[in-house]
Amino acid sequence: MKVLAFGTSNSKNSINKKLAFYAAQQINNADVSLIDIDDFEMPIYSEDREKESGIPQLAHDFYKAIGSADSIVMSFAEYNGSYTSAYKNLFDWTSRIDMKVFQNKPVIMLSTSPGPSGAQSVLAAAQASAPYFAANVINAISLPSFFDNFDVNKGVVTDETFNQNLLTAISKL
Ligand SMILES: Cc1cc2nc3c(=O)[nH]c(=O)nc-3n(C[C@H](O)[C@H](O)[C@H](O)COP(=O)(O)O)c2cc1C
Fold it and tell me: For the whole model, what pTM was predicted?
């Protein structure tokens, strides 16, 4: 199974990228493609820019990466209760190719932050809007207090509730 994994952050040390990679690796026989959304940086979306120059190639590349995957594991970073601007910009451009950004793929949505909320606000927003963007959300799972619940040296989640919920989600793929 081809699994596309990414964190919705352009931070070099993104904890959400680490979490997405860990989760994707738990899928049996997964061929995991871990991408960095920093490699998809484009000018800030504007309708004027789109009219003048069209949709950048990087948005097409991201759309194709989703289209060629069998399933998606993504983990949401939360900035001020919402999406990072890096992800929102990538998402806005991609949605101009096709509003069905997720192309009916099964998606495991995750989120984490260093604090106890575990970026639940952005995760809830992403889950609520998923049907408009043709995401078949298998489950949405937040990992609170990342540095208490993730062994950074081993790259594994140590919180058993999260791991159980993740395995249940994976079994539905
Ligand atoms: C501008 C900014 C806003 C943030 N707002 C939130 C927030 O609303 N909720 C939260 O849980 N963490 C917030 N944080 C902390 C992030 O969760 C933390 O930086 C985390 O490492 C981001 O995920 P990443 O490492 O995958 O980029 C914020 C960080 C920044 C830089």
Answer: 0.98
For residue 3, give the amino acid letter. Answer: V
User: What is the number of the ligand 1 atom nearest to the C-alpha of 80?
Assistant: 8
Question: Which residue reads 């199974």 in tokens?
Answer: 1
Structural domains of the chain in order of their starting residue, each with its CATH number: 2-171 (3.40.50.360)
Q: Is 77 in the pocket of ligand 1 (CB under 6 A)?
A: yes
Yes or no: say if 103 and 66 are a contact pair by the CB < 8 Å rule. yes
- Answer whether 79 contacts ligand 1 (Cβ < 6 A): yes
Any ligand 1 atom below 6 A from CB of 14 = yes
Torsion of the alpha carbons at 15, 18, 23 and 27, rounded to the nearest 10: 170
CB count within 10 Å of CB 61 equals 13
Whether residue 15 has its Cβ less than 6 Å from ligand 1? yes
**Average pLDDT for residues 139-161, to the nearest whole number?**
98
CA-CA distances (angstroms) from residue 7 to 49, 71, 78, 137? 26, 15, 11, 16
pLDDT in tens, 82-138: 999 999 999 999 999 999 999 999 999 999 999 999 999 999 999 999 999 999 999
Distance 9 CA to ligand 1 centre (A): 9
